[in-house]
Design a protein that fits this description.
Mean pLDDT: 83
Low-confidence stretches: 100-104
Radius of gyration: 30 Å
Shape: elongated
Strand content: 5-15%
Distance between the termini: 55 Å
Helix content: 55-70%
Structural class: mainly alpha
Oligomer: single chain
Strand order of the largest sheet: 3-4-2-1-5-6-7
Number of strands: 7
Number of domains: 4
Largest sheet: 7 strands, parallel
Length: 577
């Protein structure tokens, strides 16, 4: 049995991000907008009607009338006098009007949105399209991608090199708001030199996925494909119907795999296949232990260049897998959380390893990334989605912080927790609390779930790969969160900034349900020598017992309040069940 083409392509683009370009035709937009030819014919028909022409092919009539080449420029010049009038004439074909009964149309198709997610993940970077509409641009905007749009020969001639483009959309026939776009047979018989050079490069250096393109009237594009005789990567042609004569010849020339289904069905399945492979990779039992063992070997041998490059590569891969997004539906929240967690599993394991066995030098290989990810800002939307942009930084902080706590690197850990990423911001101990960056979890369970999710992701590495064992890992996790809260309390007392705790994490009480003292607070206090807390003796809080005591008292009051609320809620549930 042959491998599903969508699965085959998913394997390839994950192994070679950006190696495939897409060539999209009107079939990708479906019925959402009219084709360029349909718009041209309707405009010519309108002009013919003004001249009282009936019973004739309006295009043939128009050709005879002009006695020369015809195209959008000529028909728009005959119908309008100014650029503003031209925009007003064309806009209703591509955008809904205020009185449109279906005001949510035209909108991106399933194929557009699936392609946009592939671009956001860094798997596709070059898209060629013959479509005049802006549906793909809208889909990219929805996921937070701002592509380079090349819709004219002059734009192509002045473009930056392809390898510098994160996302590039080449509109071969132009844009519907540009009266110089191409659509008649004469216009499509040849491209300007700059466009031909770009096509030659893309068709030579990239694999190709063709979807929704009939090939019937695009002579210049057919010629460009036939000029290319190299096959660095494979090609796929997505078409639900039989290919015409031109298409069949081009498919054979390109050696393309024919996929007989709609663009919507194929690209959605391709995206699902990529997601499935991401889950397999992130969950593979051998991946994390091998990476951890490699990182430990680099630390032990002081092979710092390889260690640095290993971390940098994994951070880059994580960012590509996470991609970017923009809010357009609360149902996206949990899938985004899961996507981030899959992408961050391996980077967190590496950071925990380096923070545990490393030193201040190796901290410099992950700390700048953590701080830069803390500064990520959204482009509007619900606060929960804006908070979620910092969740990768939260995961890195918890991975590093728990490992440093377990290794006794207390001063370095306190310094990290007191870092600020902007003037007027709080310390990252406040900015990156799990309950804060996961503020979109259901309110009644947020307090428990946020820290639990982080714990469950990191615990296998902390307990098994760092050889801490379950008890030591749990203790380090609790004490790390306790120190986070104390540093945040100290910052409020120090700067008179207002701060609200969104949870108490996984910090357990010393006894049963009615207890209101935090376990790490009691355990550490019991380890005091001559009335000096062990953290103060180690130099934390500037070695100032009074300063530490104020922060500890502030948190103790809050913890007791949360415990009372928890006990009350539990009793209420018991009474109603």
């Amino acid at each position: 049995m042959d491998l599903d083409p969508a699965v085959s392509l998913a394997f390839t683009i994950r192994a070679n991000p950006g190696a495939y370009a897409l060539l999209l035709g009107s079939g990708v937009s479906g019925d959402a907008v009219p084709t360029g030819w349909e718009v041209f014919v309707e405009l010519v028909g309108s002009l013919a009607g003004r001249h009282g022409v009936t019973g004739r092919d309006p295009v043939e009539w128009y050709r005879e009338l002009k006695q020369g080449p015809i195209g959008y420029e000529t028909v728009l010049a005959d119908l309008t006098d100014t650029p503003a009038e031209r925009v007003g004439l064309l806009r209703p074909y591509f955008e809904p009007g205020p009185d449109d009964a279906e005001a949510d149309r035209p909108g991106p198709t399933e194929a557009h949105r699936a392609i946009a997610r592939l671009v956001a993940a860094g798997l596709v970077r070059v898209v060629l399209t013959t479509n005049l509409d802006r549906l793909l641009e809208r889909a990219l905007e929805e996921v937070g991608v701002a592509p380079t749009i090349l819709a004219s020969p002059s734009a192509v001639a002045g473009m930056a090199p392809l390898h510098q483009q994160r996302a590039c959309v080449v509109k071969l026939h132009g844009d519907y708001l540009d009266p110089g776009f191409l659509n008649t047979g004469e216009e499509l018989s040849g491209y300007p030199e700059a466009v031909d050079r770009l096509l030659d490069r893309v068709l030579d250096e990239y694999g190709l996925v063709i979807a929704g393109w009939s090939s019937a009237s695009d002579a210049a594009l057919r010629d460009a494909i036939e000029r290319c005789t190299t096959r660095r990567y494979g090609s796929f042609w997505v078409e639900p119907f039989e290919l015409n004569e031109h298409g069949a010849r081009l498919r054979q020339h390109r050696g393309a795999t024919l996929v007989k289904e709609t663009a919507d069905a194929f690209f959605v399945r391709l995206g699902e296949s990529v997601d499935a492979l991401d889950r397999v990779d992130s969950d593979h039992p051998a991946t994390v232990p091998i990476a951890v063992a490699t990182a430990k070997r680099h630390v032990e041998r002081r092979d710092l260049i390889r260690l640095h490059d290993m971390l940098a590569a994994e951070f880059g891969r994580a960012q590509e897998r996470i991609g970017r997004w923009a809010y357009h539906g609360s149902e996206q929240f949990m899938p985004l959380v899961e996507r981030i967690e899959r992408a961050m599993r391996l980077p967190c394991a590496l950071v925990a390893t380096v923070a545990f066995w490393g030193d201040e030098t190796t901290d410099g290989y992950w700390r700048p990334t953590l701080l830069s990810w803390t500064r990520q800002e959204g482009e509007g939307g619900l606060n929960s989605f804006l908070d979620l942009r910092r969740y990768p930084a939260t995961l890195l902080l918890y991975a590093a912080g728990v490992a440093m706590m377990a290794d006794g690197r207390l001063l370095e850990l306190e310094g990290l927790l007191r870092e600020r990423t902007a003037v007027g911001s709080g310390p990252i101990s406040s900015e990156l609390l799990a309950g804060g960056t996961l503020s979109g979890l259901p309110a009644r369970t947020q307090r428990d779930q946020a820290s639990d999710r982080v714990h469950d992701l990191l615990f296998p590495v902390l307990a098994d790969q760092l050889f801490l064992g379950n008890d030591a890992a749990e203790q380090a996790y609790e004490r790390f969160e306790y120190l986070m809260f104390l540093v945040s309390s100290d910052d409020v007392l120090d700067t008179d900034r207002y701060s609200s705790y969104r949870s108490v994490g996984r910090i357990r009480p010393t006894g049963g349900l009615s207890e209101d003292k935090a376990r790490p607070a009691v355990e550490l206090e019991a380890a005091s020598r001559e009335g000096v807390h062990p953290w103060v003796a180690a130099g934390l809080f500037g070695g100032d017992s009074d300063r530490f005591a104020k922060a500890a008292e502030s948190f103790a009051e809050f913890y007791a309040e949360v415990r009372r609320q928890t006990m009350f809620a539990t009793l209420m549930r018991q009474n109603t069940s």
